[in-house]
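ok trying this again, last paste got cut off
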Amino acid sequence: MATTDDVTESKLLLAEYDRIKEEQKTRIGFRDNLLYFTLAAATAIVTITVQSGQPQLLLAVPVICLVLGWTYLVNDEKISSIGCYIRDQLGPRLGDLTAARSPVFGWEVYHRDDASRTTRKRLQTAVDLLTYLALPIICMTAFWRSPATQTPLVIVSLAQTLALAVLGWQFLRYAER
């Protein structure tokens, strides 16, 4: 059994750091796999559509992209929030306790100062928009141009377009982080 002498604020902060870095690592892996899964699912839907000759199946792609894109975005935001918390809260608190002369958890700041970071962030946003916005729009356009268009499905596709616009706006909004 630990005594109160064994439990210090700095030990608690380091334990918190370990746990949230583990959560961040898990979220990064999950987020990155969502991109691959989205592409695989969309490819499967397009393949089934071509083989079956049923273009209305293409309307499944926007649903997949909306659900997985939102999940991707939420995880990405949490990953960024964890980094921000470490930089702005946890690191400074631990630095004050230890009277450190340089920032604690320096990597959390250092990797953000890379000269190519802005370019990488913009390219990643472009990939995200291409995957979660352009891909479903292409599928909907193919559906709209097909002879299988029916009023109820066109209405559904227009609702999907609106939802995709909101998702795209959210991707752009969070791209600044």
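PB: full thing came through this time. DSSP finds five helices and no strands in the chain.
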